[in-house]
Design brief:
The chain has about 425 residues and is α/β, with parallel strands linked by helices. The chain is built from 17 helices and 17 strands. It has a seven-stranded parallel sheet with strand order 4-3-2-7-8-9-10, sandwiched between helices. The protein has a six-stranded parallel sheet with strand order 13-12-11-14-15-16, sandwiched between helices. Strand 7, helix 3 and strand 8 form a beta-alpha-beta unit. It starts with a strand and ends with a helix.
Length: about 425
């Protein structure tokens, strides 16, 4: 083995925590793309178990290793999504793939999404291995603006000793949010050591997608009607929202003063999706789609948005200046509800809790957006949206030039075996 310094591409290993929906992989893909756009010498390898990862376009210098899929039920319990393996065996398989990728890719920087040790500790072996390298990579934890209710989050973090893991393995904690909405370190009572390396970098600004607003709207026969986009994120628990909205349209005999574009999400159950599609097909001025890999274009084409309250959806709504009615989920985690309520209190959007949701209320809320949504947009000027730029700054401009370890194939295989 030898150690040399050389001019080369900076390698970034990204772990995306994906067990439910599309939120985590969409967020980490946006960060990965921001890194490669900020520096042509950055190359990113994503580790993800998202079943929809293949459906997204990979920008240049970004690739991925697909981990076996896990699933999270409505009570928050993890299981195996597809393989005929028990949960422990699936975790061992995922962990071994992560270790192999960490050794062979030899990253300069590692970005970990949400869970400091991964799902049920599956990252621990890889983090221990990387910490033992002569040229240890910089390791950063990426947190969204809100994780869950403070009491629940503190209990989970204490149970898994996440602060101990951060002290052992991490160089920083980057929060993609603003303390003016939710101060993560204060609300979750981070100890001093974690608080010192925690930084709120701002929300992740979303640009318009691959199509212009005019190109999107040209695919509809709007006939002067405003276009309301209705979507449920990944769709795994979005059937009640979609069904209630369609029922509200049906009660008006299709005479809503707007055109509805409903996107169910790819993880909605097949039965729920087909029933909703059949109901929508009976109504005028309604389009029903399953999935898009370019939600930013869809949102840019819309005049208003009715949706659930995931992080990416809210960032897109705010970035693209769209009036929005957010109907957040409140279980098994309260993240969406906390986000929607706090932003509604500040006038950034409208919020309707699922306990308040009725078909008539949804249609009335959508109508208000099309008639008087400008006040929401004006209120948002104070929110910081520098998250992508500031994360890119940490990775691309603050990461020092590091020596490259030259190891033989036999040596690398030995290190993989020792870690497992």
């Amino acid at each position: 083995m030898s150690v040399i310094f050389e001019a080369r591409m900076t390698r970034v290993l990204v772990y995306s925590h994906d067990t439910f929906g599309l939120g985590n992989i969409r967020r980490m893909l946006a960060i990965s793309q921001a890194l490669t756009e900020a520096d042509p010498n950055v190359s990113v390898l994503i580790l993800s178990g998202s079943p929809m990862l293949h459906a997204f376009r990979m920008p240049p210098r970004i690739d991925y290793v697909k981990l076996p899929c896990l699933a999270r039920d409505t009570e928050g319990v993890y299981g195996v999504k597809y393989l005929n393996l028990d949960y422990a065996a699936a975790l061992r398989l995922r962990s071994s793939l992560i270790v192999s990728a960490a050794i062979e890719f030899a990253p300069d920087v590692v970005l970990i999404d949400k869970k400091p040790l991964g799902v049920d500790g599956e990252l621990e072996a890889a983090l221990d291995l990387l910490a033992g390298q002569e040229c240890r990579p910089e390791v950063y934890l990426i947190l969204r603006d809100i994780l869950d209710d403070p009491e629940v989050t503190q209990r989970i973090w204490d149970k898994h000793d996440y602060h101990g893991a951060i002290a052992k393995h991490y160089d920083g904690v980057l929060v993609a949010g603003s303390p003016s909405v939710f101060d993560v370190a204060q609300e979750y009572a981070f100890p001093a050591a974690t608080r010192e390396i925690t930084e709120h970098v701002g929300y992740l600004h979303r640009q318009a997608g691959r199509k212009t607003r005019e190109e999107v709207r040209a695919t509809f026969d709007l006939d002067g009607l405003p276009l309301v986009l209705v979507h449920a994120g990944g769709g795994g628990d979005g059937a009640p929202l979609i069904e209630a909205f369609i029922e509200g349209l049906s009660a008006r005999a299709g005479r809503a003063p707007f055109y509805s574009w409903i996107i169910s999400g790819p993880e909605m159950g097949a039965g729920d999706r087909e029933r909703a599609r059949a109901s929508a097909a009976t109504l005028p001025h309604v389009r029903f789609d399953d999935f898009t890999d370019d939600m930013s274009s869809c949102m840019a084409g819309a005049d208003a948005v009715v949706s659930m309250g995931g992080y990416n959806t809210v960032c897109e709504v705010l970035s693209l200046r769209k009036p929005a009615l957010i109907v957040p989920r409140s279980r098994p985690v309260k993240e969406q509800a906390i986000r929607a309520l706090r932003m509604a209190d500040r006038g950034y959007l409208a919020c309707m809790l699922d306990s308040e949701m009725t078909p008539a209320a949804l249609i009335a809320g959508a109508m208000r957006l099309t008639m008087n949504g400008a006040a929401q947009v004006r209120a948002r000027h104070a929110l910081p949206f520098e998250g992508l730029d500031r994360i890119a700054d940490v990775v691309c401009r603050q990461a020092p030039l590091r020596p490259r370890l030259q190891r033989s194939t036999q040596d690398r295989r030995g290190r993989v075996a020792a870690a497992l």
